[in-house]
Specification:
Blueprint: H1 9-28, H2 37-56, H3 60-77, H4 85-106, H5 113-129, H6 134-140, E1 149-158, H7 169-177, E2 181-187, E3 205-211, H8 216-222, E4 230-238, E5 270-272, H9 306-331, H10 338-362, E6 364-366, H11 368-371, H12 374-384, E7 388-394, E8 399-401, H13 402-423, H14 427-432, E9 438-448, E10 451-458, H15 465-474, H16 486-491, H17 514-523, E11 527-533, E12 537-545, E13 550-558, E14 561-566, E15 570-575, E16 581-583, E17 589-593, E18 596-602, H18 603-607, E19 620-626, E20 629-635, E21 637-645, H19 649-652, E22 659-664, E23 670-674, H20 676-696
Parallel strand pairs: 2-5, 7-9, 14-23, 18-20
Antiparallel strand pairs: 1-3, 1-4, 2-3, 6-8, 9-10, 10-12, 11-12, 13-14, 13-21, 15-19, 16-17, 17-18, 19-20, 22-23
Length: 697
């Protein structure tokens, strides 16, 4: 029986990407000239894991590339090589290359061989050009470079369950051969008769002689993954017992998993010492490109804490108990049991609500998954822009839905790049203003009500109001005589195609980005605001729902139909006073509310349905805010508030202006969920049309 290890490939990719993120974070924290052994060890372990896993799955191009990087890290952690800025930058580039390689292999796409070769060669050059001399090694690491040790005798006896851990002795021995010349003898004495052979148990052991300058630590690192799954003895070979050099030959090796384990032509010698007849193995060439994987595009998996799973299991147990109780009541129901039935239904409602909350918690992830990309982004862009920038992050453990997390990434990148490019000044400019030459960019996240709030704050130059007005007039966004408050001027940066950049660069200034940010955030049911003060800085604030699957809604009645308005969009509801209603040219209506004039949206006109009331004073006005603008929605009546499960209308039907989705109510009817921002936009467009018609008339 062969083991299909390809089923674990997705897990390998996920863990590798996490390892690369760890490497990147630790590399960004390294200071040239300072050897942070703990950080270097963390980077080394991540690289070693990727190398070992890629070798297991036959991704030899990834394994070969990582091996060079691992060698460089090994010299750093042993103290044989200093931590330099050149080395850190090159290792960061190596992390990028590995991420690109794994992404391409996961999607069954072509790997950028030119890019891989370029960085690989630079690593090799760094290793050769900066390699310490033998004398330096002897002085710095006298224990590991003892002149009397010329090799090692290794007794390697895997425990019988080794194969079941996913490890392979042949690959371990091959990795050992990279440390020097080896001669390996395999002991077959524990192999049972063929009909008693269990292909999932390891019955072999090896005696290995390794010659060369490897240290004991390097030898033990080779067996690091199996140190608890084998009996390992390592003895030094001194100059008195030096091995005679000989040419190693490849001899067939017993391996019951021949179909699952590809062997390279460089596999070291393994010759049987017992007289038992060896089982023949078929060596196959490793394939560098992964096979087509139906799950290669994007993993749909998510890591869940065991505490959340335990809570879910406990809740299911409570539901089972309640169900059992209700079943017993139903078997022999009499009217005197009505109260007990009602109590059981109340319990069922409570358990269902708690189960829903627990299930939703499973999809919640800390926003650190999005924030973790920014240390590297700030590092690279600050170098490119010749700026000194310190990144601060807080609230990284604030949780939000995985779907929201995936969609908020690009808008956050836009806002951070904008702050780095337009916000924070050059060091000399900051000094002239009396500021520290190092600017500060602060990312913060926290919960507020049923929303998550994300703030991007910088202590830079702030928004240039005069420049924004000038550009807005130039592009026809506003008129020359329009009077706008500072807050309204700030909002102009979200207009399509708006940019104040004098020079187009690959960082910003192409006139795209901020309008996309606002649109993407609005599509998530959120809003984005900006506050700025000259030479003090700017703060962009994003408010998003915690999840896109469920929302708290206000049910409203209009004619025979029921609609749902998201509670987060509602400011207040009120009875309409006739004296506060004003009509303007074209028949558009405004409602005066505390010195503000709000456009009235007659929902029955928008959706072309027959209402119960057409007179405003007989209905209710729900004051809402969408896309930073307020309006009043005229409805017949308010019903109740409840949580609703959102169903995509676009997926199941088509996109409808003014509607964001639908839900199924308790009585089985379908209710449409209103898109407040879309309704406000429709209302304003309708007012413009009416004004134009009136002007023509």
């Amino acid at each position: 029986m062969s083991i299909d290890i390809s089923q674990f490939l997705d897990t390998f990719y996920e863990e590798s990407f996490e390892g690369l993120d760890t490497m990147e974070t630790e590399l960004l924290g390294l200071n040239p000239g300072e050897a942070d052994v703990e950080s270097i060890n963390t980077i080394f372990r991540a690289a070693h894991s990727i190398k070992g896993g890629s070798g297991t799955f036959g991704l030899m191009n990834v394994a070969d590339f990582t091996h060079v990087l691992e060698t460089l890290l090994d010299e750093m952690r042993d103290g044989r090589r200093d931590v330099t800025q050149l080395a850190v930058d090159l290792m960061l580039a190596s992390v990028d290359v590995l991420r690109e390689m794994l992404t391409a292999l996961r999607s069954s796409e072509e790997v950028d061989v030119v890019r891989v070769t370029e960085i690989h060669d630079q690593l090799e050059t760094l290793l050769k050009g900066d390699a310490p001399s033998v004398e330096d090694v002897a002085v710095e690491t006298p224990v590991k470079a003892s002149p009397s040790i010329v090799g090692w005798n290794v007794s390697f006896k895997p425990l019988s369950h080794l194969f079941k851990t996913g490890n392979d002795p042949v690959r371990i021995i091959k990795e050992l051969s990279e440390l020097g010349s080896i001669k390996a003898n395999v002991d077959l004495s524990a192999v049972p008769e063929f009909d008693l052979l269990d292909p999932e148990e390891c019955c072999l052991s090896w005696q290995i002689e390794l010659s060369g300058g490897a240290t004991e630590e390097q030898v033990r690192d080779v067996f690091a993954w199996v140190d608890e799954d084998c009996e390992l003895i390592i003895d030094a070979i001194t100059s008195e017992t030096i091995l005679e050099p000989e040419t190693l030959k490849v001899v067939p090796v017993p391996d019951a998993r021949d179909e699952a384990v590809p062997l390279e032509p460089e596999t070291p010698v393994i010759t049987p010492v017992a007289e038992t007849k060896p089982v023949k193995v078929v060596a196959k060439k490793s394939v560098a490109v992964a096979a087509k994987n139906p799950h290669a595009a994007e993993s749909g998996s998510i890591r869940v804490g065991i505490d959340k799973i335990d809570a879910l299991i406990n809740m299911v147990g409570e539901l089972v108990i309640t169900q059992s109780m209700l079943n017993q009541l139903g078997e022999d129901f009499t009217m005197d049991k009505v109260q007990r039935l009602q109590e059981g239904l109340d319990e069922l409602e409570q358990h269902t609500r708690e189960l829903q909350e627990n299930v939703m918690q499973i999809r919640m992830l800390p926003i650190s998954f999005s924030f973790n990309r920014f240390p590297r982004l700030v590092h690279d862009l600050s170098s490119k822009l010749n700026k000194k920038i310190e990144l601060k992050m807080s609230g990284e453990n604030t949780e939000l839905d995985k779907t929201v997390m995936e969609k908020i990434g690009d808008p956050l990148v836009h806002l951070v790049r904008n702050s780095l490019d337009h916000g924070i000044e050059l060091p000399e400019e900051r000094v002239e203003k009396g500021k520290p030459e190092t600017g500060v960019l602060h990312l913060n996240a926290y919960h507020q009500g049923g929303n998550i709030v994300i703030e991007i704050n910088d202590d830079g130059a702030g928004l240039n109001i005069d420049r924004i007005r000038e550009k807005a007039i130039e592009k026809g966004i506003i008129g020359e005589n329009d009077s706008l408050s500072d807050e309204k001027v700030h909002e102009l940066i979200f207009a399509p195609g708006f940019s104040t950049a004098e020079v187009v660069s690959d960082v910003s200034g192409r006139g795209v980005g901020m309008d996309v940010v606002k649109r993407n955030i609005r599509d998530l049911g959120g809003i984005v605001e900006v506050k700025s003060k000259k030479d003090v800085g700017s703060t962009f604030t994003i408010r998003l729902p915690l999840t896109l699957a469920i929302l708290d809604g206000q049910l409203v009645r209009l004619g025979d139909e029921t609609y749902i308005i998201p509670l987060v969009s509602i400011i207040e509801s009120l009875q309409i006073k006739a004296g506060n209603v004003n009509s303007i040219a074209g028949g558009a209506e405004l409602y005066k509310l505390r010195e503000e004039y709000l456009p009235i949206i007659r929902l029955h006109d928008v959706f072309e349905i027959t209402p119960v009331n057409t007179e405003l004073i007989n209905g209710l006005l729900v004051v809402v805010e969408g896309d930073g603008k307020q309006a009043g929605i005229f409805v017949d009546d308010l019903l109740g508030q409840q949580q609703v499960v959102i169903k995509s209308l676009e997926t199941n039907y088509r996109k409808v202006d003014g509607v964001s989705g639908a839900t199924i109510l308790g009585d089985g009817t379908v209710a449409l969920i209103l898109d407040v921002a879309g309704l406000v936009a429709l209302s304003r467009e309708r007012v413009k049309i009416l004004r134009n018609q009136a002007a023509v008339a």
